[in-house]
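Re: that chain you flagged

S.,

Sorry for the slow reply, it's been a week of failed gels. I finally had a moment to sit down with the sequence you sent. For the record, here it is as I used it:
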Amino acid sequence: MTNPARPGGRAVDELRSLKITPGFISTADGSVLIELGGTRVLCCAQIVPGVPGWRRGSGEGWLTAEYSLLPSSTKERTPREAVRGRQDGRTVEIQRFIGRSLRPSPT
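Prediction finished late last night. Pasting the structure tokens below so you have them in one place:
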């Protein structure tokens, strides 16, 4: 019996192609476009002075994250959350996950 191909014609033991493009957004302090097959993730970093009120005076910084699924990034159009006036629970949890996973990183 032969192994069926995956969508896109890949063999079951074949990885999707990976491409990483640093500096993708020239106006960001840091950015990268990551492409894995048909999936694309754009990450941008910006250094902003200041920390949350509860962190003031501690001598420590703060890292936070924003996440957005762009319209037309899925088969059915994803409406912009800004138009609705609030983020859904999935977006909030993804932002928390990203921030929490990066905060323990060494500086």
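What I noticed first: The chain has two helices and three strands.

Talk soon,
D.
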